[in-house]
C-alpha cells in the first residue's frame, strides 16, 4: 500500500508516525497487550492536549483506561493524581490494580476505613475523602494535576450525589478533570456544564460494546431469544414470546369457573395442561444446571433480596450441584484459608463460615452487603479466577466492581426501592446486564430473564432496547457545606458558586421548555373562552358560582372527615395497656389487645408533616397472634375498650409461644363480644347557609335556562383546568430560578440565628460544625455545644454516636429498640430533645426534609449493638442480641468509627473528656471482624 504513495506522502506519513511515537500516549499503549479502542485513543489525546474529558461508555467497555492514562501523565509530569470512586470496594480494587502496575511505593489509598501511603503521587480514594480535603484546605492538594472521577453518574444518587458536584465546583482551575460515566442520554448537557465550570472539556460518547450482548428469556425447558434475527437497528420481539404471553393471558380454564356453575370442556383443560407443561419459571438449581450445559457459565444471578441470595445457594447445595472438580476445590480451600486466617475460630462459627466454604468449594456463592467484607472479597477473587462459577447477588454488585461474567440472569423485573415494589428502570437493566461478556475471554455475553406470570415481552424489549438513561443532579446545600463555603469565600461568593451547580444548570435549562408550554396554554385558553360564551348572559360568572358551590361542598366533606379523625384520635389517646378493642377496618381488623398505647404525634420516622395524620399508633396483639403497630387509617371511627385483660410480665412479643398463649386468652376472654355499630350523623352540607345561597343564585342566573348549558360548562371546566395548569407552570418557572441559592440563604439564616455565622464570619461554633460531615452534622455540633456527651465512657459515647449514623433498612417500629440503661438513655433522650428543637427551627426557616435538606430524627436502633461491641462483648453474643447480618454490623460500626473520628477532631480540647473518649471508643470498636483489613 505504501508503494502507491508519492515520496511527499510517504515523508508526511513518516513525520506523523514520528510525532505519534514522541507522545506520552505511545509509551502508554505499549504497557497493554491489547490495542486501544478509538474512543479511548480520542480521550487520551484530548487529555494529553491539556483538555478535561467526559467519557460516557457502556459497562465493561474499558473507560478506566482513560483514567489510568491520567495517572500515567501525572507521573510523567511529576504531578499528583487522585483517583476517586463511589464505593470502598471499588477503591480497594483500583488500589490493587494501580499498585501492581506502578509499584506500591507510588500508589496510596484513602477511604473511611484505611489510610495507606497517603502522601504517594497517586492516591485512590472515595469521593467524600476528596470533598473533605477541599474544605479543610489539605496540604495533600499541593501539586495536584489530575483528578479521575470514576462512575461520575453517581451524582444522580439522591443521598450522596451532591458530593460529586461539590468536588467538581471546588477543585482548583489548574486541575484537569477526567469524568468516567455509564452511557447517559444527556452526556452533551453534562459536558456543557463541565465546560462552563471547569473550562475546555471534550465529551466522548461510545455506544459500542466490545463484547456483543444477546438477550434471552428462559421459560420451562427452553431458552428463547428475546429478539428475532434481522438487520437494522429496530429489532422485532420474538413472536414465540408474544404468543406465549397472549396464551397465558387468555387461558380458558379457571378452577373458580366450577363454583360459578360454568361448564369447562375437557379439551380446554387438556390444552391448559399441555401449555403449563411448556411454560413455567424454572428453579434456581435448574437455571444454573441449564446454563452449565449450554456453556454459559460463569453467571451472576441478580436477586433483589439478601435472604433470597443465601437461600439460592442453599437450594443449589441441596440439589447436589457441583461446578468444580477436585483440583478446583483444593485451590478454593487454600485461598479461603489463607484470606480468613486472621479470623478467630469462634467468630468463623458465628459467621457461617463452614456453610459458606462448602458453597465456594462447589463453585457457588452469594454476594450482598450483609456479608462480612472479607467474605465478599474472597467471592470476588474466586469468581475472577474462575473458581466460583455461579454467584447470586443483589444489585450492589453492579456498581463498578470488576466481576464480569459470561452470563447475567435476572429473576424478576421488579425490585423494592425502599418505599414500594417498582419496575426496574432501563438504566438499572443496562447496569445489571452490562456485567455479561468478559473482554478478551468471551466472544459474546448473554442476558437471561426468567419467565414470570404476566410478563410482557414488549416491556422487556423496551428495557433491553433503551441503552441510556438521563443524568439528573441531586445537589442540595447542607449546614456543613454552608459554613465551609462561607469560611473560604464569604456568603456572596458562596452563593454565586452554588448557582454554578449542575442542579441549577439543569433547572435554568428546563425553564425554557416550560415557558414554551405556557405560551401554548395561553393560546388554548383563548379558544376555550370563545367556546364557553353563552348568548343569555355571562357564563364565566355562572361557572364561577358552580365552582364555588363545588368547593364549598368539598370543604365541608373534608371538615367532616377531619372531625371524625380527631374523634378517633381522641379515643385512641384514652387507651391503656390491657384494653381489649375491636379494630374496625384494615388488614388487622378484628379483636386486639393493646400492648402499648402509641407514640407522641409528629415523631414518625423523623419526618415533619405527619403529625396531623398519624396521632397515637397503638401496638396491639391480634387474635391471630400478630404483634403490629397500627395507624390512624385503621381507626376511621372512635374505638372503645370492650374489656380489660392483664398482660403477663413474662410476655415477650418476639416469642411465638408467648404470642400464642396471650392470643388464646384474648379469644377466650372477649371472643363472644359483638362491638356496637357506629351510626353516621347528618351531613353538614344539608344545613349550610352558604350552600343554600349559592344554589339560589345559580337557579336565578340567566345562563341556568340555556339549552346548551352543559356544553358551555364542559368548555368552562376545560378552561379553568388549563388555567390552573398554566398558573402552576408559571410558579414552577418562578420556583426554578435561583432555587439552590434560595435554599442556601435559608440555611445561612438559620445558622446566623444559632450563632454559627455572623455575616461573613464563621464563629467558633461554626468552625466546629465545619469539621462534622454527615446527615446529622448540625445535631452532632449542638450535642457538643451543650455538653450532652460529657462524662460518658467510651462505650456509652459509641452508643450515642451510633444514633447519628444508623438508619434501619425497614421502618419496623413495632418494638422500641433496646437501650443501655443509665447515662446512655438520658443522653439519647437529650439528643432527641435537641433534634426536636432543630426540627421546629427548620420548619420556621422553611428548610424542607422532603427536598433532601435538614436533619432527620436520630435512629436509636444500633445503640445497644455499639455499646456491647465497645464493651468487649463477643461477636456471637452481639449478633444474637441484635439479629443483624455480620456485614451490616461491620458497616455500621465503621460508620460510627468515622463519625467518632470527626467528633474527636471537633470537640473542645480543654475542659472536655469527649475528644479523649471518642478516640478510645474508636480503639474499642476497631477489633475483631470490624478491624480485619479489607486491603491486600
Annotation field: number of helices: 35
Termini separation comes to 51 Å
- Low-confidence parts: 252-265, 601-613
How big is the Rg? Answer: 33 Å
Please give the largest β-sheet: 8 strands, mixed
The shape, in one word, is globular
Helix content: 40-55%
Would you mind describing this structure in some detail?
It is a single chain. This protein has 936 residues and is of the alpha/beta class. It contains 35 helices and 24 strands. The strands form 5 sheets. It has an 8-stranded mixed sheet with strand order 4-3-5-2-6-7-1-8, with helices on both faces. Strands 10-9-17-14-11-13-12 form a 7-stranded mixed sheet, with helices on both faces. α7 links the parallel β6 and β7. The two termini are 51 Å apart.
Outline the secondary-structure elements:
Layout: H1 7-21, H2 24-29, H3 38-48, E1 52-56, H4 64-77, E2 80-85, H5 88-102, E3 107-110, E4 115-116, E5 122-126, H6 127-136, E6 144-149, H7 162-170, E7 176-181, H8 187-198, E8 201-205, E9 213-219, E10 222-225, H9 239-249, H10 256-259, H11 266-278, H12 284-293, E11 299-302, H13 306-318, H14 326-339, H15 345-350, H16 353-361, E12 364-367, H17 373-384, E13 390-393, E14 407-410, E15 414-416, E16 421-423, H18 426-433, E17 445-450, H19 457-465, H20 479-498, H21 502-531, H22 539-573, E18 579-583, E19 590-596, E20 619-622, E21 627-629, E22 643-644, H23 656-670, H24 689-700, H25 709-736, H26 739-753, E23 757-758, E24 761-762, H27 764-769, H28 777-785, H29 794-805, H30 823-844, H31 863-870, H32 875-882, H33 886-906, H34 914-925, H35 928-931
Parallel strand pairs: 1-7, 1-8, 2-5, 2-6, 3-5, 6-7, 9-17, 11-13, 11-14, 12-13, 14-17
Antiparallel strand pairs: 3-4, 9-10, 15-16, 18-19, 18-22, 19-20, 20-21, 23-24
Amino acid at each position: 500500500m505504501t508503494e502507491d504513495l508519492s515520496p511527499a506522502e510517504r515523508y508526511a506519513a513518516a513525520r506523523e508516525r514520528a510525532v505519534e511515537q514522541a507522545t506520552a500516549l505511545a509509551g502508554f499503549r505499549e504497557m497493554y497487550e491489547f490495542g486501544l479502542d478509538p474512543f479511548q485513543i480520542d480521550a487520551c489525546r484530548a487529555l494529553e492536549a491539556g483538555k478535561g474529558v467526559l467519557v460516557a461508555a457502556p459497562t465493561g467497555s474499558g473507560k478506566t483506561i482513560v483514567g489510568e492514562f491520567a495517572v500515567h501523565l501525572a507521573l510523567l509530569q511529576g504531578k499528583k493524581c487522585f483517583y476517586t470512586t463511589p464505593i470502598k470496594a471499588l477503591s480497594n480494587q483500583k488500589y490493587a490494580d494501580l499498585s501492581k502496575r506502578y509499584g506500591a511505593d507510588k500508589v496510596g489509598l484513602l477511604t473511611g476505613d484505611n489510610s495507606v501511603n497517603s502522601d504517594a503521587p497517586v492516591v485512590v480514594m472515595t469521593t467524600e475523602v476528596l470533598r473533605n480535603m477541599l474544605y479543610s484546605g489539605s496540604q495533600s492538594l499541593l501539586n495536584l494535576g489530575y483528578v479521575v472521577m470514576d462512575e461520575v453518574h453517581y451524582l444522580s444518587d439522591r443521598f450522596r450525589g451532591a458530593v460529586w458536584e461539590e468536588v467538581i465546583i471546588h477543585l482548583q482551575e489548574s486541575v484537569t478533570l477526567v469524568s468516567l460515566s455509564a452511557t447517559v442520554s444527556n452526556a452533551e448537557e453534562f459536558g456543557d456544564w463541565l465546560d462552563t465550570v471547569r473550562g475546555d472539556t471534550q465529551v466522548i460518547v461510545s455506544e459500542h460494546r466490545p463484547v456483543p450482548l444477546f438477550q434471552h428469556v428462559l421459560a420451562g425447558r427452553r431458552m428463547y431469544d428475546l429478539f428475532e434475527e434481522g438487520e437494522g437497528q429496530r429489532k422485532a420481539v420474538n413472536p414465540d414470546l408474544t404468543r406465549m404471553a397472549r396464551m397465558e393471558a387468555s387461558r380458558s380454564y379457571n378452577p373458580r369457573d366450577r363454583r360459578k356453575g360454568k361448564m369447562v370442556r375437557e379439551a380446554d383443560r387438556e390444552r391448559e395442561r399441555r401449555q403449563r407443561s411448556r411454560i413455567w419459571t424454572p428453579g434456581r438449581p435448574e437455571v444454573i444446571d441449564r446454563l452449565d450445559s449450554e456453556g454459559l457459565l460463569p453467571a451472576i444471578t441478580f436477586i433483589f433480596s439478601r435472604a433470597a441470595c443465601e437461600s439460592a445457594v442453599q437450594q443449589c447445595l441441596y440439589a447436589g450441584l457441583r461446578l468444580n472438580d477436585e483440583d478446583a476445590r483444593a485451590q478454593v480451600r487454600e485461598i479461603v484459608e489463607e484470606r480468613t486466617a486472621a479470623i478467630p475460630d469462634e467468630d468463623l462459627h458465628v459467621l457461617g463460615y463452614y456453610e459458606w466454604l462448602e458453597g465456594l468449594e462447589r463453585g457457588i456463592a452469594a454476594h450482598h452487603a450483609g456479608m462480612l467484607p472479607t467474605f465478599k472479597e474472597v467471592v470476588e477473587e474466586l469468581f475472577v479466577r474462575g473458581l466460583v462459577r455461579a454467584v447470586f447477588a443483589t444489585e450492589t454488585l453492579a456498581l463498578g466492581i470488576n466481576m464480569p461474567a459470561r452470563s447475567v440472569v435476572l429473576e424478576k423485573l421488579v425490585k423494592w426501592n425502599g418505599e414500594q415494589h417498582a419496575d426496574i428502570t432501563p438504566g438499572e437493566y443496562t447496569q445489571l446486564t452490562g456485567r455479561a461478556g468478559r473482554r478478551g475471554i468471551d466472544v459474546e455475553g448473554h442476558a437471561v430473564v426468567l419467565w414470570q406470570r404476566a410478563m410482557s415481552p414488549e416491556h422487556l424489549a423496551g428495557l433491553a432496547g433503551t441503552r441510556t438513561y438521563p443524568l439528573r443532579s441531586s445537589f442540595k446545600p447542607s449546614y456543613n457545606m454552608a459554613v465551609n463555603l462561607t469560611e473560604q469565600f464569604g456568603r456572596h461568593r458562596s452563593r454565586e458558586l452554588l448557582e454554578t451547580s449542575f442542579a441549577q444548570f439543569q433547572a435554568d435549562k428546563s425553564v425554557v421548555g416550560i415557558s414554551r408550554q405556557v405560551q401554548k396554554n395561553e393560546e388554548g385558553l383563548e379558544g376555550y373562552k370563545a367556546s364557553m360564551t353563552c348568548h343569555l348572559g355571562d357564563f364565566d360568572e355562572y361557572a364561577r358560582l358552580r365552582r364555588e358551590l363545588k368547593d364549598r361542598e368539598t370543604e365541608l366533606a373534608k371538615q367532616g372527615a377531619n372531625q371524625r379523625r380527631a374523634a378517633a384520635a381522641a379515643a385512641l389517646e384514652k387507651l391503656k395497656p390491657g384494653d381489649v378493642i375491636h379494630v374496625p377496618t384494615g388488614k388487622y381488623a378484628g379483636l386486639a389487645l393493646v400492648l402499648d398505647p402509641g407514640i407522641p404525634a409528629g415523631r414518625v420516622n423523623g419526618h415533619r408533616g405527619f403529625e396531623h395524620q398519624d396521632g397515637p399508633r397503638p401496638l396491639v396483639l391480634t387474635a391471630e397472634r400478630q404483634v403490629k403497630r397500627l395507624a390512624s387509617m385503621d381507626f376511621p371511627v372512635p374505638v372503645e375498650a370492650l374489656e380489660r385483660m392483664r398482660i403477663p410480665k413474662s410476655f415477650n412479643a418476639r416469642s411465638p409461644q408467648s404470642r400464642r398463649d396471650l392470643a388464646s386468652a384474648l379469644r377466650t376472654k372477649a371472643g363472644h363480644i359483638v362491638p356496637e355499630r357506629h351510626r353516621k350523623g347528618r351531613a353538614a352540607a344539608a344545613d349550610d347557609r352558604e350552600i343554600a345561597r349559592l344554589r339560589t343564585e345559580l337557579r336565578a342566573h340567566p345562563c341556568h335556562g340555556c339549552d346548551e348549558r352543559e356544553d358551555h360548562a364542559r368548555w368552562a371546566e376545560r378552561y379553568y383546568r388549563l388555567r390552573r395548569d398554566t398558573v402552576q407552570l408559571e410558579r414552577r418557572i418562578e420556583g426554578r430560578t435561583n432555587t439552590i441559592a434560595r435554599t442556601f440563604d435559608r440555611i445561612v439564616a438559620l445558622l446566623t440565628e444559632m450563632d454559627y455565622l455572623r455575616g461573613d464570619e464563621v464563629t467558633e461554633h461554626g468552625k466546629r460544625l465545619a469539621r462534622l460531615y454527615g446527615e446529622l452534622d448540625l445535631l452532632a455540633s449542638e450535642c457538643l455545644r451543650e455538653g450532652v456527651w460529657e462524662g460518658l465512657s467510651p462505650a456509652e459515647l459509641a452508643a450515642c454516636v451510633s444514633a447519628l449514623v444508623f438508619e434501619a433498612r425497614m421502618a419496623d417500629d413495632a418494638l422500641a429498640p433496646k437501650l443501655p440503661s443509665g447515662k446512655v438513655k438520658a443522653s439519647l433522650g437529650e439528643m432527641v430533645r435537641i433534634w426536636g428543637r432543630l426540627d421546629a427551627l427548620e420548619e420556621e426557616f422553611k428548610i424542607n426534609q422532603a427536598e433532601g435538606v435538614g436533619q432527620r430524627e436520630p435512629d436509636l436502633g444500633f445503640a445497644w449493638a455499639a455499646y456491647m461491641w465497645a464493651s468487649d462483648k463477643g461477636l456471637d453474643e452481639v449478633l444474637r442480641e441484635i439479629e443483624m447480618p455480620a456485614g451490616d454490623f461491620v458497616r455500621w460500626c465503621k460508620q460510627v468509627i468515622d463519625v467518632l473520628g470527626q467528633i474527636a477532631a471537633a470537640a473542645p480540647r480543654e475542659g472536655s473528656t469527649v475528644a479523649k473518649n471518642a478516640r478510645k471508643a474508636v480503639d474499642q470498636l476497631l477489633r475483631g471482624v470490624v478491624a480485619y483489613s479489607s486491603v491486600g
